[in-house]
Amino acid sequence: MSATATATTAPATAAAKERRPGAARAYLAYLGGKLAGAAVSLFAVLVTSFFLFRIIPGDPVKSMTQGRAVSEDQLAALREQFGLDLPLWQQFTDYCTKAVTGDFGTSYQFHAPVSELIWEKVPNTLLLTGVAVVLYTMLGLWLGTRAAWRHGGLGDRLNTGVALTLWSVPGFWLGLLLIIVFSVGIGPIPGLFPTGGMEEGGKEGFAYIADVAHHMVLPVLTLVAVGYAQTLLVMRSSLLDEMGSDYLTTARAKGLRDDLVRRRHAVPNALLPTVTLIFVNLGHVAAGSILVETVFSWPGVGSLFYQALSVPDLPLVQGLFVVFAGAMILMNVLADILYPLLDPRVGR
Amino acid sequence: MTADASAAAAATPGALARARRRASAARFWAAYRKQRAGVVGLIALLVIALVAIFAPLLVGSDVDNVTDAPGKALEDPSAEFPFGTDQFGRSVLGLVVYGSRISLTVGLLSAFLCVAIGTVVGIVAGHFGGWFSTVLMRVTDWFLVMPALVLAIVLATVMSRSVTTIIIAIGVTAWPTTARLVRAQTLAIEARPYIERAKALGAGHLHITTRHVLPNVMPLVLAQTTLAISTSILTEATLAFLGLGDPQVVSWGGMLQDAREAGAVSSGHWAYLVPPGLAIAAVALAFTLAGRALETVLNPKLGVAK
């Protein structure tokens, strides 16, 4: 059985290669172009962050020492310490070489290297938002498929209406309400979930995992509620585009059940546009969690960003800006790399 | 109706154009009226706009006065204060009514700014082509990839705290989608024969872009603006909640931040928290519904899909 399977597929792939001798090279050229574009984008991010934080605030040392009494000597010493007395172009090259090696300077408020502070928090953010993105993507795809397959019906209108309403709700507000209802407790409902943080502390093994999961329920719920609408709408409209296609009529004509037509023929094709969206959402993971992490005091990069803003701790804000933008660029490149492999019509 | 049309045809070209515009406006309204969700959104917007304009008449003109507040701190809802009071003893209802002003102002102005930038970039990139257009679209793509909220937060952090800062921060980060749409539309319009005719008659770049392309992209731009307003209002609330808004101005996002800092969450004082958030959601939803309805009416291809 398996022997025949390989026997039939092997000539097929050989034939495919024969038909398109330049395909692999075309893909490599496409890949090279996308990677070069990403490198340029990343460089532009560095340039932007450099000039945003050095040109606009006027004197960084002044804003650093805002509200404190400092003498001229102290200001001069600070300028020297941060290399601000050097010519601008030299500051810029210094900044770029340091940034490439992952050095974003020292945080004003934590007196620790910015990169260390950020790396410490990255796993927590990935855990929270990773779970949320997986859940809301699945929910959005499922509801979007249902809405499109029976489009115009009551279920469709209800589905789309609820999604649009939740989309218009500010996520941080929804989070605050969930805390009031499910953590503080309202009326007969007792406080079921913790108000914030990630763990009680002092727990190990399975109890620790259960504790973290318990803390994750409300923030994940918030992220899912606000996030699934976009996936739903994209999936719905892309499935609607496929619905009129001839190949679906063919599939029905050969006697497939409605369910199979949807699952095997329509949905796989309609999934293509949502793939890009999933990657873009993953890129938003860090940035999108700023508010939810802040509201639920989740110890991730989002709440770190909030802490940096309130000072403002410029090196930390700057480092996080580069990280957030870098994550977006990385995810877009990944989407660009994968897309032609999934959809052969693209990138040739 | 036909008598009207023939009378207009006999009149001057100006009158003819006016009659044609009236007819197309009537056609548009008839199509829009069929979008039930869009009509609901439009009515909601009218009500909210009236509330914002007549705020002083509805709740008095000194609701945001901290020193001479009428109630005690964090009162529960009562006949005098339907949503209770904030930590300074001010009426939450009055603050929510006043908050609509800043929300709508920032929403409208920053959406206008971002759509204006997007339209200019899109038309220029679509009309001129060549390396200049390539560079312009590269920049657009770069902005499209940037996390807009983070960029807006960073801009609001490094500039001074004011309403203008917020408007600029939202406006300069949210334009790329519009630019892409407008560019595609510009390319489609410039491929039509009447542009060639205009060129043959000696029309310059300015004439073609402002007299032929712009009127044709306007419907799309209008729908885009409506959708941009709802995003802008959400971003404004977010920035204010993060403490980046103007502390002197009452805004919904700022109220939520105050409520959180006053401990309304941990004490379960929901009356202070619910109204500002509902107001944000209602305005954003109303603009989204109106924008989607506009899009459906103006883009018949999308209309079939809906």
UniProtKB/TrEMBL annotation, chain A:
The chain crosses the membrane at residues 27-56, 125-143, 164-186, 206-229, 270-296, 316-342. PROSITE patterns: ABC_TM1 (PS50928). Gene3D superfamilies: MetI-like. Residues 122-339 form the ABC transmembrane type-1 domain. InterPro entries: BPD_transp_1_N (IPR045621), MetI-like (IPR000515), MetI-like_sf (IPR035906). GO terms for cellular component: plasma membrane. It is a multi-pass membrane protein. GO terms for biological process: transmembrane transport. SUPFAM superfamilies: MetI-like (SSF161098). Keywords: Cell membrane, Membrane, Transmembrane, Transmembrane helix, Transport. Pfam families: BPD_transp_1 (PF00528), BPD_transp_1_N (PF19300). Its main location: membrane. It is found in: Cell membrane. Belongs to the binding-protein-dependent transport system permease family. This is ABC transporter permease. The lineage of its organism: Bacteria, Bacillati, Actinomycetota, Actinomycetes, Kitasatosporales.
Automatic annotation (TrEMBL), chain B:
It is a multi-pass membrane protein. GO terms for biological process: transmembrane transport. The keyword Iron-sulfur does not apply. It is found in: Cell membrane. Residues 100-291 form the ABC transmembrane type-1 domain. It holds the Pfam family OppC_N. The keyword Methyltransferase does not apply. The chain crosses the membrane at residues 37-59, 102-130, 142-159, 165-182, 270-290. GO terms for cellular component: plasma membrane. Keywords: Cell membrane, Membrane, Transmembrane, Transmembrane helix, Transport. This is ABC transporter permease. It comes from Streptomyces coryli.
